[in-house]
Design a protein that fits this description.
alpha+beta, Ribosomal Protein S5, domain 2, 5-stranded mixed sheet, 4-stranded antiparallel sheet, 5 helices, 9 strands
């Protein structure tokens, strides 16, 4: 039995509320069970120097956790004092979102996606990617409505989910209690049935090819549910 009482293939409750900030071109509050992340997208008509005059757009991300997102207070991270974990996660979010973008169609502009964890109960990077895509989509819709972008540069929704082996069973969408005790922990980033990135490791026990395939099957199910929620939120 999972601590939450969920079935092995059962997701936490998902909700995505859009338009939660008045200034950002795209914003949403995504809740995956007790993990809550505020995602905003900002349009910048400038691109990084290495893309100047290339005709290509860019999508990047920043990630952070509020001091009381966890059960004990964390110190705020200054821009130049980010932990290795924070830097790794925001790079993951950025390259995951870019995998679903036609950068030629986006035009020579940048969209910055900020993911701020309000409350953490496992899976914050996955929730950030899933909610980040919604904020990105809303910002792109504004560009298209204004006529600044002709064709939709977002090819397919991008979503992410965690899966792992907990108490000897393959389970979908780990919360903190499961994640902290899982023998195997993995994060799966996908778009339209295709893998973008898999982060998977043994946390105390090895795993077989058959178990990995079982986790991938669970991830596909979870991402399909997340994609449905994303499309409902931006429609």
């Amino acid at each position: 039995m999972r601590p939450s009482g969920r079935q092995t293939n059962e997701m936490r409750e998902i909700s995505i509320e859009t338009g939660v900030t008045m200034h950002a071109e795209g914003s949403c509050l995504i809740k995956c069970g007790n993990t809550h992340v505020l995602c905003t997208a900002t349009i910048d008509e400038r691109v990084p120097p290495f893309l100047k005059n290339s005709g290509l757009g860019w999508v990047t991300a920043e990630y952070g956790m509020l001091p009381r997102a966890t059960n004990t207070r964390m110190r705020r991270e200054a821009k130049n004092g980010q932990s290795g974990r924070t830097q790794e996660i925001q790079r993951l979010i950025g390259r995951s979102l870019r995998a679903g973008v036609d950068r030629v169609a986006l035009g020579e502009r940048q969209i910055v996606v900020d993911c701020d964890v309000i409350q953490a109960d496992g899976g914050t990077r996955c929730a950030s990617i899933t909610g980040g895509w919604v904020a990105l989509k809303l910002a792109v819709q504004k560009l298209m409505k204004a006529g600044d972008v002709i064709s939709d540069p977002l090819i397919d929704p991008v979503a992410a989910i965690s899966c792992g082996i907990y108490a000897g069973q393959e389970v979908l969408d780990l919360d903190y209690l499961e994640d902290s005790e899982a023998g195997v922990d993995g994060n799966f980033v996908m778009t339209a049935g295709k893998l973008i990135e898999v982060q998977m490791s043994a946390e105390g026990s090895t795993y077989t090819r058959a178990q990995m395939d079982a986790l991938l099957d669970l991830a596909e199910k979870g991402v399909a549910e997340l994609t449905a929620a994303q499309l409902a939120a931006v429609s």
